[in-house]
TrEMBL record:
A Pfam family hit: LRRNT_2
Signal peptide: 1-29
UniProt cross-references to PANTHER family, sorted A to Z: DNA DAMAGE-REPAIR/TOLERATION PROTEIN DRT100, LEUCINE-RICH REPEAT-CONTAINING N-TERMINAL PLANT-TYPE DOMAIN-CONTAINING PROTEIN
Residue span, Leucine-rich repeat-containing N-terminal plant-type domain: 37-75
Major localization class: membrane
The keyword Repeat is assigned to this record: yes
Protein name: Leucine-rich repeat-containing N-terminal plant-type domain-containing protein
Keywords of this entry: Leucine-rich repeat, Membrane, Repeat, Signal
Gene Ontology cellular-component annotations: membrane
Amino acid sequence: MEMDVPPKMLASLTMTILMTMMATSMTLAADAAVLKGQARALLIWKDSLDNQSHQALHSWGNTSTPCNWRGISCDTGVQRHQHWPVISGISLRGMRLRGALESLNFSALRTLTRLDLSHNLLTGSIPPSIEVLRELHALLLQGNQIRGSIPLGLGNLTKLYSLMLHENELSGEIPSQIGNMSSLVTLNLSSNHLVGHIPCEIGT
Ligand SMILES: *[C@@H]1O[C@H](CO)[C@@H](O)[C@H](O)[C@H]1NC(C)=O
Ligand SMILES: *[C@@H]1O[C@H](CO)[C@@H](O)[C@H](O)[C@H]1NC(C)=O
Ligand SMILES: *[C@@H]1O[C@H](CO)[C@@H](O)[C@H](O)[C@H]1NC(C)=O
Ligand SMILES: *[C@@H]1O[C@H](CO)[C@@H](O)[C@H](O)[C@H]1NC(C)=O
Ligand SMILES: *[C@@H]1O[C@H](CO)[C@@H](O)[C@H](O)[C@H]1NC(C)=O
Ligand SMILES: *[C@@H]1O[C@H](CO)[C@@H](O)[C@H](O)[C@H]1NC(C)=O
């Protein structure tokens, strides 16, 4: 059976297809720019680490896409309607990485769902900017030499289900904002220099 499509309808259909294609290519360009910014943030952090860490991360920078660099995983983020891969995970457990945690530009890494830098030689503090990692499910920083207090902004990470900060040099009190992490299932703050009491908000 043949369908007669009126010319007017055909024109509007063509227009719709063209506009969809334009919108798609604009989204692709934007996503590609996100990935590029993420690669840049990783390389800046690598530069800030010591020489031995550079060897561990020698694959970083050797291809234009960070998705096949050691410890990096990417995702096309179906629920965010992304068409281009973005970084979803950093898993660099026990690689003797030495440097400051806060040299990592978290603003560029908002698509992270997993950040595992556990059992390294990282110093510095957990920067307040970590609160921009709204997609984060797991934050594993245990077994480092991280100092300073637990940032209040962690309370904004409502998708976080695993927070492992044990075996560090964290000080100060446990913030009551910890009760705002409504998805939290696993928490370990053991072996730090925390003082004060356990906030009652933890009951939420
Ligand atoms: C690190 O590597 C650079 C060049 O690769 C070298 O000049 C520098 O001396 C090294 N530093 C240490 C502490 O090994
Ligand atoms: C790039 O990294 C891969 C994986 O680590 C390695 O096998 C390869 O030799 C590297 N290529 C260059 C040109 O450094
Ligand atoms: C951190 O990343 C953001 C987003 O990619 C960028 O706008 C900003 O300039 C970066 N900051 C630094 C210090 O590189
Ligand atoms: C984190 O949550 C607090 C309390 O709702 C809010 O004031 C703050 O703006 C949030 N931070 C960001 C970066 O959205
Ligand atoms: C954080 O939790 C407190 C109660 O513990 C609540 O009053 C406050 O509205 C929550 N803030 C956010 C941003 O959910
Ligand atoms: C929490 O960390 C301590 C070490 O500081 C460890 O002994 C303990 O097994 C950990 N607990 C969990 C549930 O991971």
